User: Fold this.
Amino acid sequence: MTERDNAGKKKMLIVVILIFLMIVSINFLPKLLRTKVNTILPIEKNYTEKIKANALVLLPETVYKNDSNSEVMRVAVEGQRVPVGAEVANILYGRDMTNQKNELSDVERRIKLLEDGLDSVLADSVASFQISVSKNDYSNLRGLKEDINIRLSINELSVFNEDSTNIESLAELKNRRDRLKSLLDSNLTRVYSHQSGIVSYETDGYEELLDINNLEEITPDKFTSTYKPKKNSEAIFKIIDGFDWILSVLSDDQSLEVGTSYELVLTDDEENTYLLKAPLIMANNTDANAIYFFKSNLLMDKIYSHRKFEIEIVKESRNALRIPIEALIEIDGEPGVFVKEYYGVIRFRPVIIIGTEENFCYVEHGDSYGYIETNEGKRRKTINIYTEVVTAPGKHTEGEILQ
Assistant:
């Protein structure tokens, strides 16, 4: 074989290799140079817009006073709902009656023990004890005493007097109770309710400042944490009359509408949370803020003992589509996103933004045909849960054809 033939074969091999490389380049180089398009699908999620604010509770409350600075004995318990004319408290005048009060409590306890636990067997034990004492027969007293207390199941409590050798009959205890009550009655004044409602011995000084019938007088300074009204030293208890109460809210948002019912989330100073839906009955707007007044007849027994609350007002709640804020782009003053069409072209879709939350924004659904109305009044197709939204719109252009 001549050198000329070898040279021809080498040239032919080089041509074949070059043709092969050209074919590979034509098929694979565009794929290597293609820009990667990152997309996400919108998430259907409920969007809730809340207003956070401070609130004060206004109650229909009447304060009862003790101008003598005398000792007060509670009759009704805290939180008890009483009718008109109910005995709520007693005011003791004159000398110290502490010993008599303690003695009366002890006697009433003994009476209750005997009335609740006196069966026929126990009655025999009591009778045997009294007979042994009358005969000065002390040999069986210890056993009888233990038997009586065991049958009453009172452990450390006792129906015996301090000398442990005398047990009073039920009739004798009742007579002593009546004498003590008579003594105390001669030195006390009974305080009765003039209206029905909830009794509370916790007064805070706001009772005379927050008038539920004069809402116009509620000013922003009363909502501050530094504002502390002076308590009335003569106040002994108050009665919250009726069931209706007012929640006053100070907010810098002035967009709430009177007559609309809103969902409210109340948190008291003990971190208790209450859910409530109440109508907005009045709003006082100023240059800087608004004072809103909500009315309710629910939860009175839960909230009456708290004056100040942290509150969240659910201003708006609706279904929306959530997308990353980084996906937003504006073209000709219109907000929207780039989307990847199924045929491989980048297109702009307008959106209507209804709110943001951290790194996400919420946009409106389109109508039943997937369209929204733009600021110019035009109907334009928007995104849905199946739209491939481009997450880096700055890297692409409208109409770009993806290879």
Q: What stands out?
A: Residues 3-33 form the longest helix (31 residues). Residues 154-166 have pLDDT under 50 and may be disordered.
